[in-house]
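Posting for a labmate who doesn't have an account.
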Amino acid sequence: MAPPFDIPNRILVAIGGNATHPEDIEGTSKEQKEIAASTARALLPLALLDNELVVTHGNGPVVGKILMRHVPRPGHGAAVRLMPEDSDDSARAWGLEGIAALSGNAEYREYLLERQAMAEECIGKVGARIKGLTYGVYPNLSLLWSNSTLRVSHPRGPGEIDYWSWWLLPKDAPEGIRKLLRSNFTLMFGPGGLLEQEDGEAWSQQYNGVNISYMDDSPLHYGLGQGSEGPHPELPGQIGSCYSEHYARAFYQRWRQDIENGLRRAGA
């Protein structure tokens, strides 16, 4: 049966957060595997066409579940979710939200749950409930939680920057666990990872967008969510909505303060 409309040569499919992380799930690896299989079945008819199929992602509802932008001290920041007190370790554990969890490997799951059980002893009850996305340590160190990626950015001049990236894991992890954890890094946010390639393109285009003469005399506005930040009953510092530029404002305020302090010390 022919379709009732012309199909373009290139088909772009955006798989949004409502599809990959609906409201009625807990976010376990089993649920992620079922959702991935359902999504693949829906895409199969398009993949069988002779047209070019481009699959991309959205983050709206998933990012919304993070709930907060956390600035523990000026300049530092994180995008985190403080899991409910009655949540179990499978909802909190690092590594279970990565692509390796889709393998269904029982040893992998057991190992990560054992590590999570140790978290409260190391960082306390509240710390063990924190499920992060990204962390930034002023001025240029960052950590991507789900893929255990530690990065340092090195500006090299106008329009040039180097990223040094390390992959982290527990030093006592068995080789089989290391291999699965490595896939979280290499397949997604490693130098050749799927999302790293996509994000790198986005960063380049963002730079190109602001590197125009019009922007030279046009101030940027960092007021999204301004005034919504405030103290949290269980976390230090200031907490703002995830849909805000709370962290960006705190970063640039710290940067400006450091520049002004340096000028005063230099007698300028």
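Reply:
Got it, the structure tokens are right above this. The first strand starts at residue 10 and ends at 15.
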